[in-house]
From TrEMBL, chains A, B:
SUPFAM superfamilies in the cross-refs: Nudix, Winged helix' DNA-binding domain
Lineage of source species: Bacteria, Bacillati, Actinomycetota, Actinomycetes, Kitasatosporales
Domain Nudix hydrolase: 27-173
Top-rank taxon, per record: Bacteria
Name of the protein described by the UniProt record: NUDIX domain-containing protein
Record field: transmembrane: none
Species whose genome carries this gene: Streptacidiphilus alkalitolerans
Length: 279, 279
DNA sequence: TGAATAGTGTCTTTAAGACAGTATGAG
DNA sequence: CTCATACTGTCTTAAAGACACTATTCA
């Protein structure tokens, strides 16, 4: 990377560092924004905040905020912002899967200045209703179905224009971030056991199947899914117990499972259809 | 994201924006750094520059530089930096695959100030030897084998400590960026046709196999690989022609292929072994 | 001619999917 | 009792891998 003023005296690096002025560059701000997904009543929801201040005052936006310079790395900033804008305490946060999604840095994506946003993706079990943070008029879990284009989840990859706009427009380019997050989430379910991150510590195979069905947006074959999940080493491990009662519409009491120790699924649980390669 | 001073007059957004001072925040700088990979004489090489100025003066580092505030998005910045630090003209750049890898933002990764680096991954066909850019004493394609830990490519994922350090230490945290890039490259070969990005426009199946073997670090079965590549729809398309001569050690003249129009491989070309799930 | 390579055929094993069948428990 | 559900069994098909074989070209 270029230095502020190249070709300094090579022996006097410390003096050079002392004289370095961090304000000399045209500033680019760095934020983290979090796409936190959860399932409530079998429906996929995303955590949104209503902006209390300009720009986009009153609009819904992803929770996030500026990285504290010199104080935290990006993962820490994302965890901090997620905790600040939700009623999530540190204990509950440990149950949340948080991973970096990608960075977005179009010069005009924020009208104030050039802001690079490092987007994070979070998978959470059903969490309490959030309270509004310091800069939000409100914070809520919003059904993704009220934001996604009618096209539905199968159609189109990241480049498909039909999936790049949301129905209820979010602030900034947060609609694009959400689209990217959903794409990533759908494909993460294929080759990782992260579907379990949406569930309580103990769950049934049907619970797990419901996660896949909701996020992929299609029904799966119960019998084949059941066998497949149990055949992948390390995906789930049995507890030896069952639920106290059968389902609301009858049936035997399903067995309870915990997440196994696999971090990747082998073989993967590939999505059906996808009519051959997406070109 | 939080605003500079929340709870402004909601009706006067434009005035608020005019009064906005981009220098008010503790500054975080944003750079792009590029892990450009190519094959030279069947060996994987990475583009490195030797730093002409502090910090890390004299060390090898990934090419990169500061994002020009307000002037370019991240992809453009990466393409610009790659072009600046190589002898690559715009025409050749179109043959290079460039994708975002991820962002790195530990507060102390740069001694000057808090710098968030957006890392990019580039796959290039054999390009000319680069010239040194403005801030580099030298620029060169360096064999990845001289930087990677002895462990070899199979062992360990991103979290394995044996792969997180490089033998020849790079400046900043660029060793970690390289490790992440190699992981990404290895897995991208599985489910995308990007191996072709390392080859000329026309290539043989053996050329393609050599890409996989070098990047995955293991020999593949020639017959099965051949059939597999031809069976994946849209991976390659025949030209109807063959090379002018057979191999240096004999054999029939292999047929020539071009890249097909698939953007994902279905079914994927999974890496062998990987002894079940990586836990 | 000998050796290495391109390309194809075939067999085995594994996995995915379609479908059927049995047992369980709620209403 | 009825019906949805939890699971299991079985068959078909697709794909991966092991292996063998032929044809072609360079040395």
């Amino acid at each position: 990377m270029p230095s502020q003023s190249p070709r300094q005296d090579p022996l006097d690096e410390q003096a050079w560092l002392d004289a370095y002025d961090p304000h000399a560059f045209a500033p680019v701000a760095v934020t983290v924004d979090i796409v936190a997904l959860t399932l409530r009543q079998q429906q996929l929801h995303v955590l949104l905040v209503q902006r209390a201040a300009p720009p986009f005052q009153g609009s819904w936006a992803l929770p996030g905020g500026f990285v504290r310079a010199g104080q935290e790395d990006l993962d820490q900033a994302a965890a901090r912002e997620l905790a600040e804008e939700t009623a999530v305490d540190t204990a509950a946060l440990r149950r949340v899967h948080l991973e970096q999604l990608g960075s977005f840095g179009a010069p005009a994506r924020d009208p104030r200045m050039h802001v690079v946003s490092v987007a994070y993706l979070a998978f959470a079990p059903d969490l309490p209703t959030p309270r509004a943070g310091t800069d939000a008029a409100a914070a809520a879990w919003i059904p993704v179905s009220s934001l996604e284009p009618v096209a539905g989840p199968h159609r189109g990859g990241p480049g498909d224009p039909s999936t790049t706009r949301t129905r209820v427009d979010l602030a900034f380019d947060h609609g694009a971030l959400l689209t990217a997050a959903l794409d990533r989430a759908r494909s993460k379910l294929e080759y990782t056991p992260l579907a379990t991150a949406f569930l309580d510590r103990e769950f049934t195979i049907s619970d797990l199947r419901a996660v896949y069905e909701e996020i992929w947006g299609e029904k799966l074959h119960p019998g084949n899914f059941h066998r497949k999940v149990l055949s992948v080493p390390g995906f789930v491990e049995g507890t030896g117990r069952t639920t106290a009662h059968g389902g609301s519409r009858g049936g035997p009491r399903p067995r309870l499972y915990r997440r196994g120790d696999a971090r990747l699924l082998h073989p993967a649980l590939l999505r059906p259809d996808r009519e051959e390669a997406i070109r």
